[in-house]
Amino acid sequence: xxxxxxxxxxxxxxxxxxxxxxxxxxxxxxxxxxxxxxxxxxxxxxxxxxxxxxxxxxxxxxxxxxxxxxxxxxxxxxxxxxxxxxxxxxxxxxxxxxxxxxxxxxxxxxxxxxxxxxxxxxxxxxxxxxxxxxxxxxxxxxxxxxxxxxxxxxxxxxxxxxxxxxxxxxxxxxxxxxxxxxxxxxxxxxxxxxxxxxxxxxxxxxxxxxxxxxxxxxxxxxxxxxxxxxxxxxxxxxxxxxxxxxxxxxxxxxxxxxxxxxxxxxxxxxxxxxxxxxxxxxxxxxxxxxxxxxxxxxxxxxxxxxxxxxxxxxxxxxxxxxxxxxxxxxxxxxxxxxxxxxxxxxxxxxxxxxxxxxxxxxxxxxxxxxxxxxxxxxx
Length: 379
Fold this sequence. Notes:
By secondary structure, the chain is α/β, with parallel strands linked by helices. The protein folds into 2 domains: 47-124, Arc Repressor Mutant, subunit A (Orthogonal Bundle); 133-378, 3-Layer(aba) Sandwich (Rossmann fold). Helix content is 50%, strand content 15%. It contains 15 helices and 9 strands. The strands form 2 sheets. The protein has a 7-stranded mixed beta sheet with strand order 5-4-3-6-7-9-8, sandwiched between helices. The protein is globular, with a radius of gyration of 25 Å. The N and C termini lie far apart (68 Å).
């Protein structure tokens, strides 16, 4: 322990005591060079991704991925000519994207392009794995940091309306590709006779509808049905109403309401990625059960998760635990009861809430995606 024996004449006796107690501790395990290199390598990958957040947002908002995807191989000068943007900035941006493998660089021609797979992820907004908006969600988490850091000390929540302004927009854009590609195509057909009811004309409540993207998809798909969107966040409901007017969808309506105040009777009640954010999920589920017609169904879409931490130590679980720390748990703790389920509650815990605590008779896994767990609950 020679590295602990350097003496400082100004050290107090208390410091000497502290140091001598350290000297008596057993030797720490030596560093394994291979493990250290692997860890640092992984962290460098992560930091590259973190540093890329603003660059992907710039590329998406300026249409750079779309331009590259549609035009084949381009030099930075050719991209500048096509976009009217400045070549020097584009050259640096393109270099960063190529280093990230988000686009492809050909050292022979010194031109940049996108493979079909890169386009599917960064340029094709209709793709189920259009992940560019996820970088916007990552930026929103960073903006939430001061409030959430304070909440670590106080244990209090951070209300949805007090979180960073761009959060609700970022979350809406992040979830949209999944809803666009799965909601009508596979999730609703997996439920018990629901598509037939909605095709004939039914009543739908979209609880926790946010900006109303899921609500709008259902209203357009089933024009004979009346689709009601409810959310406790007034600004989100305002945005949802604007979208409905812009798209001229008449069989849709939005109200600012908590799930525990749900009015009316419905053939289908949907909850998209919101149950775990609620302060009182059981109270909400009880009211939802009461608002359901006897033959109705509830579709509960939650983040994909296993039932234990060890099952969730994977890239999807990692992403959701981070989002849960920064958004979901603070949102729930800001509400009365503050159950704070977290985004990775898992099916076992959700089934217990639905069946044992809220009193539903049936709960089954209707379908799933790599990102989502889709449960159907019936009275």
